[in-house]
Amino acid sequence: MLTALVQAGILGIEDKEFTELDRCPSCGGNVTMYDSKERRFAVLRDDSGPRTINVRVKRFSCRECGRISPANAPFYPETRMGSPVVDLCVVLSRGMPASRVARVMEDLSLVVDRGTVRNYASRDFGEIPVTSFYGISIPRSLMTLSLMGIRGP
Fold first, then answer.
1. pTM of the full predicted structure?
2. Model confidence over 31-70: pLDDT tens digits?
3. d(Cα 147, Cα 124) in Å, to the nearest integer?
4. Any alpha helices (H) in the chain, and if so which ranges?
5. What angle do the packed helices 83-93 and 114-121 form, to 10 degrees?
6. Given 9, 59, 73, 116, which is the most exposed site by the fewest CB atoms within 10 A?
7. Cα separation values, 88 from 19, 20, 65, Å
8. The dihedral formed by the CA atoms of 46, 109, 77 and 37, expressed in degrees to the nearest 10
């Protein structure tokens, strides 16, 4: 059941576009649309092999400081996966080694190698709220994403 929830959440966000940024995060200035960039959110494994799930993130230019900033999107700075996937890596790493986390991720149809798990587990992403699901701690961000995927937009 957990695998179905994870897949529904990840597939539900495929091709979604993130377009909101009110102010420059650096100086608070006004922003204007700059361009749009496709980002990899996750890689799922299905019967036909790995499937990359992408989202689009608009980028904005600040009128005051000139900095280019992305729209508000579910990504941590300097990560290559969506924050719910990173959260799952970190939460699972609290109780098991990276190689086992990678196997659990694979059981959930998510493709994440143990080196990536180890990298994310060693970083500080702040407090990650969790909920217990059949005795396993699961990040709330992943559960919320899964519920959105089941309900639709």
1. 0.86
2. 999 999 999 999 999 889 999 999 999 999 999 999 999 9
3. 26
4. 2-12, 83-93, 98-107, 114-121, 140-151
5. 80
6. 59
7. 25, 25, 36
8. 10
Nearest to 139 by CA among 74, 79, 77: 74
What lies within 8 Å, CB to CB, of 61 at 6+ separation is 31, 32, 33, 34, 67, 68
Q: Which amino acid is at 140?
A: R
Collapsing DSSP to helix, strand or coil, 16 comes out as coil
Token duo for residue 148: 């959105």
Quote the tokens at residue 28. 């608070």
